[in-house]
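Most newcomers find our protein records easier to grasp once they have seen one. Sequence and backbone structure share a record, each on its own labelled line. To make this concrete, we reproduce a full record directly below:
***
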Amino acid sequence: MKFYESDILASAKLVAGEEAVIEGVTRVAKAVPKLCVTPPDVETLLATVKWANDAGQTIVPVGGGTKMEWGSLPSRVDVALSMAKLSVDCEHHQGDLLATIDAGMPLAAANALLAQYGQWLPVDPNHAKEATIGGIVATNDSGPRRHRYGTPRDLILGTSFVRPDGQLAKAGGRVVKNVAGYDLSKLLAGSFGSLGVIVNATFKLTPIPKSSRTVVIQCVDAMKVGECVSELMSTSLTPSALEVQGAPYRLLVRFESLEAVTEEQAVQTSALSVASRCEISVLRDEKEQQCWDDHALRPWRGSGSVLKVSFKPSYLTEVLQEIQTLCTTHDGIADVVGRAAVGSLMVGIDGELDNQVVVIRALRNAVSLWSGHAVFLRGPLAVRSKIDEWGGLGDGEMVMRAIKQNFDPTGLMSPGRWPFD
């Protein structure tokens, strides 16, 4: 069947229903789609994706909308596919510490349900209150607790997703050890909606910790940050988060466990040889929560560019020094937060637009020497237009392009979002 422009709205309403379809009025990553479709159930979702594929209409799945500008913008948006109504089911297997959660459900809502049973999904992505399960998986976004629990890709066990041809597919399972075949669930994590529409995801859960303490260590320079992190990682201490902020630099070392355990580990951290020569405070209760709430806002508070910079953790000091040197040289302002022992930083760069471009290019060149790369997450169009948002991604590019071709040969699923389109 061939569709013409005048038939698109009527055809979509015929497939998805009158109430599920409106003409494009909501921006998706600065683009106005022709239609915004909100399927009320999985059957309608399947029919909508198949219709769009047959009609040659591109689809961009939308969850909470918190990361639509991350990486490259979609090159064409015909149908914005909202998952808002696919957000009611959280199938919890309490005894197995597992849950299968609808893609459209916000993480905060899912954890509120799981909290009734003393369990949670221990991920804390950017914009955590609004972020949905599908969006978190699609971007593989994680926060400070990545230090202990890993990324969504590490926690996911299985998924149900809609292929670009409108067929429902399943990957993985509901057991922790599932090694049969290629792990499509982990492949979907970080695919930015370019391989299919995630319907739900199954995760391994953990018990909610009874107590929390955060040790704040003020560091005079990047060298001291590296020394503190190195010493902490050489001990038997088990922080759930080890974050760096700066400059001025400080470390946030969080312990989450039983009351006696968090108290003892906070004391041991304060007594470490490097840390003991720094200004130290221990936060708990409201002050601790306020500290982490403020931390989550950085570096998104500015109007400049935000990069995700990844590198070998042993080069933390060099990366921090390079960021500071580049911004000083080019009249920029940097706001850095991130996983100090993992080698993953969010870097906010403010300043003249041309200077931001210079800093981004130079930083990418520098971190490439330390087995790293920098992805552009958000920023002014004048900066975005002068750089490659993804930068160099290494030797796996040919393989990932082949995967995209196999999953979506017509290129209609989130075109341009993934670097391998």
User: Anything to note?
Assistant: The longest strand covers residues 211-219. The radius of gyration is 22 Å. The domain at 305-384 is CATH 3.30.70.600 (Alpha-Beta Plaits).
